[in-house]
Amino acid sequence: MARFTVKGQDVNIEQWNEQATQTIVFLHGFTGSTNTWKKIVSQLPSNIRCIAVDLIGHGKTAAPATVEFYSMDFQVELLHELFHHLQLDTFSLVGYSMGGRVALSYAVRYPAAIEHLLLESASPGLKDDQERSIRKQADDTLAEKIVANGIESFVTKWENIPLFASQKSLPAVVQQEIRTERMQQSEIGLANSLRGMGTGVMPELWGKLNTLTMPVTLVTGQRDGKFIQLNIEMQEHIKKANHLIIPAVGHAIHVENPTKFATIVKETIS
């Protein structure tokens, strides 16, 4: 574990194989942290430097009370400054769900830095203004409930939404690990993440997908129909995109089948 002060915020990262020359950066999803990547990193070769970042409002990174610090623009610039501190010129970037949206936003803005982009169950945002407005309203309402009712009430509801239905078939110990990670988050961090960089407020990137020139791997779970369709459409807009649909899993492939996900990372990036 290492901490850096970046743009006035304490940022927590985990690093493995620091002396290796090839680097992969991992960005977790909403309610996640660096912990979510440990089972993946443990299966990667020791000649790869792996860096997992706690995004703003999550894990051991700062969770400021001001929503401006959670905008997608601020998150991208915070990461860019962090990568400068870490002396990263070029690297591969892996992002899951919310972290995938952050990774994609970063790659669009700083494409020269990215050797390979791997997006797991990610999207470029919502095209339609009305859709965006409805989603923003839903996210704002959820944010208010998180703050009003507390983290345990939220986590109990969140782990039972349809998006995570496939996780109910995971071993009890794995389900408990996921719950523990979610329970360690702060109310204000999660609430402001929804308000500042939720799907309803992030600048949509559909029109910029065709500017990506690095190899892009899109990964979705067979039991996650919505994101399969999104990623099929994304692939049509990206010059060097490959879309992998993983059998018998849902939204969080790296959690539901970590061995398969680690194999994908090894085969596509390393």
UniProtKB/TrEMBL annotation:
Coiled-coil intervals: none
Keyword Lyase annotated: yes
Pathway info: Quinol/quinone metabolism; 1,4-dihydroxy-2-naphthoate biosynthesis; 1,4-dihydroxy-2-naphthoate from chorismate: step 3/7; Quinol/quinone metabolism; menaquinone biosynthesis
GO molecular function annotations of the record: 2-succinyl-6-hydroxy-2,4-cyclohexadiene-1-carboxylate synthase activity
Keywords: Lyase, Menaquinone biosynthesis
Any single biological process term in GO: menaquinone biosynthetic process
InterPro entries, alphabetized: AB_hydrolase_1 (IPR000073), AB_hydrolase_fold (IPR029058), SHCHC_synthase_MenH (IPR022485)
Catalytic reaction(s) noted: 5-enolpyruvoyl-6-hydroxy-2-succinyl-cyclohex-3-ene-1-carboxylate = (1R,6R)-6-hydroxy-2-succinyl-cyclohexa-2,4-diene-1-carboxylate + pyruvate
Keyword Lyase: yes
AB hydrolase-1 domain mapped to chain residues: 23-258
SUPFAM superfamilies on file: alpha/beta-Hydrolases (SSF53474)
The protein's enzyme class: lyase
Annotated EC: 4.2.99.20
Purpose: Catalyzes a proton abstraction reaction that results in 2,5-elimination of pyruvate from 2-succinyl-5-enolpyruvyl-6-hydroxy-3-cyclohexene-1-carboxylate (SEPHCHC) and the formation of 2-succinyl-6-hydroxy-2,4-cyclohexadiene-1-carboxylate (SHCHC).
Stated family: Belongs to the AB hydrolase superfamily. MenH family.
Quaternary structure annotation from Swiss-Prot or TrEMBL: Monomer.
Protein's name in the database: Putative 2-succinyl-6-hydroxy-2,4-cyclohexadiene-1-carboxylate synthase
Organism: Solibacillus isronensis B3W22
Upper lineage: Bacteria, Bacillati, Bacillota, Bacilli, Bacillales
Gene designation: menH
